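Reply to dn_fold:

You asked what the input looked like. This is it:
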Amino acid sequence: MIICGVALLVSSIVFTFYDRATFLRAKTQDLSAIGKMIQNNSTAALTFGDADSAREILSALQAEGDVIHASIYGRHGEVFAKYSRDAIDSNFSPPPFGDGGASIANNRIVLFQRIILNGESIGGLFIEADLDDLSDRTVHFAKIASLVLLASLGIAYLLCSVLQRVISGPIQELAETAASVTIHENYSIRAKKSTDDEIGFLFDQFNGMLDRIQQRDAALQKAHDDLEHRVAERTSYLNALIENSPLAIMVLDSEQRVSLCNPAFEKLFQYTRQEVVGMPVEGLLAGGDLQSEVSASITSTLQGKTINLTTRRLRKDRTVVDVEIHAVGLFVNGEVVGCLAIYQDISIRKRAEEETQRAREAAEAASLAKSEFLANMSHEIRTPLNGVIGMTELALETDLSPEQREYLETVKLSGESLLTVINDILDFSKIEAGKVDLEVVDFNLRECMDATLRTLSLRADEKGLELLCEVAAEVPEVVLGDAGRLRQVFINMLGNAIKFTDQGEVSLKAQILHREGDDLLLHFTVSDTGIGIAPAKQKLIFEPFIQADTSTTRKYGGTGLGLTISRRLVQMMGGKVWVESEVGRGARFHFTARFGLSDSKPIELGTIAQPDFLRNVRVLIVDDNSTNRRILEGMLKNWGMRSTLVESGEEALSALSEAHLAGDPFALILTDMHMPKMDGFSLVEEVRKMRELSAATIMMLTSAGHRGDADRCRELGIAAYLLKPIRQSELRESIARVLGAKVQKGAIPLITRFSLHDAREAESSLRLLVVEDNHVNQRLITRLLEKRGHRVVVAGNGREALIALEKETFDLVFMDVQMPEMDGVEATAAIRAREKGTQRHQPIVALTAHAMKGDQEHCLAAGMDAYLTKPIRPAELDEILQKCLASLKDSGQGFEVFVDGK
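and this is what came back:
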C-alpha cells in the first residue's frame, strides 16, 4: 500500500507541475500575441505623435481581464500612452523600458516588446498581467488528484488483501519446511505444492534441490567410507613396505629423535626398535670424526634439503659399515616436521670397487709396461736399422762394382722390407693399445699425395707400372688434418696395389664427397690393374694377419697388417674403407676421411719466374698413358701454357713439323722416357737430327731413373730429367729454370730433383749441431746434411752440446733423446734455462727412435720445437730444413713451429 500510495502521489505531483508549466507557456504566448497586435497598430500613432490614438489602442486591452497595466514608450523611452484595468490605478507609473521578453514575478507576468518600423525601433510596449486564473486552476487540479489517489489506494488495498492469501501463505509454508530441514538435517523432507503457478514451480525447484543434496550427501558418505577403507589399506601397505624393505629406514621428528625404524635398520645396525625409538640420533650411529658429519646432514635435512652421500656409520658394537644414505625432509602444511633417512649397505660393492680399482691399476701398469716395451723395441730396432739403411744409401751413391752394387741394393731392399714389417707391427700394437692420436694441422694435400707417390715410384718402375695421381679441381689445396697418418694410408694401399700388379698402372685419385661449412669429406680411390680379389675374400683382407690368399703371402710377402692399420686410421679420421674388385681385373680401394678447411692462405708453389713468364708458352706433351697426359695438361693449363697432347714419338715428330711450318713452334717438349716403339731418348735423338726442330727445350719425365740416364741426357742436350709422379712445384720450377736460362742466353747444368735443391739461393746453407752418441748415426746424419749443402758440428752427448753452443751459434740443433751423461731432455732444459730473460730462442729438433704415443708430447713439453723419428726419412728431413730456411729468410731468427715428422 505504501509503495502504491507513493507512486500515485509522485504521479499526481508530476502531472500538477506539468499542467502549471503548460498553462504558463500558453498564457505567455497569448500575451506575446496581444503585444504583437498592439505593436502593429501603434506604429502610426508613434510616427505622428498621436498619443490619443495610442491610448485608444491600449484601451482595447479591457477585453483581456487578466491584463492589469500596459504602456507605450516613445523613441527615447518616455511614456507615450498607458492603460490600467482598474480606475484606481490610473495614475500608476510604468517601469523604465527593459529588454524585450516575458518574465514571471510576484504571481504576475511582465512583457516588454520593441515597436519596429522599417527595421528601426520607434518605441516600446509594456504589458503586465496577473496569474489569478493559474492559482484557481492549480487548486482545482489538486482536488481532482486527491480524489483519484484515494480511490486508487482503496482499490489497491482490496487487491493486496486477496493476493496476500494466495502468495504469502505458500511462501510461509516453504520457509517453515526449509527451517525444518536445517534444524533436523533431514534431507528427505519435502514441501507440499498446492498450485501449478510460479509458486508451484518454486516448490518443485526446492524439492529438486533437496533431492540433489540428499544424493550428494549419500555419495559423500560413501566416498568417506571408501577413503577410510583405502587409508587403512594404504597404511597397512606402507607399514608392510617399511617392515619388509631390504633398506634400513629411520624417521626422525623435529627434535632429532627417532620416531620409527624398520627390521632392516635393526639388522644393519644391530639395535632393537625399543632401544632406538624416542632416543636422540646424536651419538647413536656415529662417533668421533663421523659425529660432525651426522649432525650437519640431519640439520640440512630438517632445513628442507635433500641429502645423498656415501659414508660410514657405526653399529651397536661400534664396528664400521659402509652405507649409502638418502635423506629428505618430511613436510606437513609447508613446514618440516621431521626427516626420513634410508640406509643401504654397500660393503660388498665397496669391496668390488676396491678390487676393480686394483685390477685397473694392475692393467694400467701392464699397459705401461707394454708401452715401455714397445718404446724400447722401437728404439732398439730403429737405431741399428737407421745406420744400415742410411749408410747403404750413401754407399750406393759411390763408385761400386756391379757385384758390390747388387749386394748393397739387396741389403737396402732387405732393410727397407724389415723396417716396413717393424713399422706395421709397432703401428698395429699402438692402435690396439689406443696409443695413437691424430693431429690437426695445416698441410698441402696435393704435395702430400705427390710425395707419397714419389717414394713408391722406384718400385713401380721396376715392374714397368705407370704411377698416376689425379686431384679434382674443386679439392682445396690446404686442409686441416693429420698428413702423416694420411700418408701412411696412401703408402699401405698403393704399396699393396704395386705389389699385386704386374702390368698396367696404379692410380691415386682424390675428390670431394661432401662439403658443409668448414667440414670436408674427401673420397680417395686407389686403383690398379692387378690380380684382383675374390668377392668372398674382400671383407677378410681388412682383418689382421690375413691376406686374400695364403699363397700370396709366400709369393708376395707382407705381414697382412697394412690394410688393417689403414682401416683403423681411416675410422679415426671419420671415414670408412671398402673395396671393389673382380679376380683378374684389378681392384679399386675406396676410403673417405674428414678434414677441415684451413683459414691460412694456400701454400705457394716454389717458382723462379713470374707467373706471366709461362703464359702462352706452347708445350708438346708426349706420353703413351692418357691419364698422365691429362694430368700434365691440367697443370700446364693452370699456369696459362698452351699444350698439345700426343701418345707416341711418331706423332710427336709430326706435331713438331706441323708447328714449325705454321710459324708457331713448340718452345718446350715434355716427353715420357718409356714408350712403345720409340722411347723418349729415341725421340730426342730424332729431334736433334732435324735442325729446324732442335731449338725446342726438352724435359724428360720417367717413372724411375737408371744409372747412366743423366749422362745420356747431357749428351742429347736434355734440359731436365725428373721422376714421376712429379710435384707441381718441381715441374713449374724446372720449366721456369730451363726456359729462363734460354731467354737469358745462359746455361745451367742438367736439372734433376736433387739439383733443384742445390740450385737454391746461396744463403740456404745452415749451420747445424747434431747431438748423437751412436757413431754410425753420427756419420749417417752428418753425411745426409752435408750432401744438402749444410755445415755440421757433432756432439756426443748433451754436455758436449752445451759446450758447443757456448762457443758458437747454430741455426738448428738435432737432439737425440737417449744419451749417456746428459740426455736430450736434460740438455734442452739447460738450453731453455740459459735463454730466460733474453730474446734468443735456439730451435731444437728431437731426433729419436722413440715413436710411441706420448713421446712427441714429452719432447715438446721439454722445450723442443719438433720431433723426427729414426730411421730418418729424407723427405721429412728436407721438410724440416726447408721450414727452417724459410723462417730464417723471413725473420732472420729461426722458426717457431716445425713440421712434425712421423
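Residues 657 and 693 are 7 Å apart (CA to CA).
Hope that clears it up.
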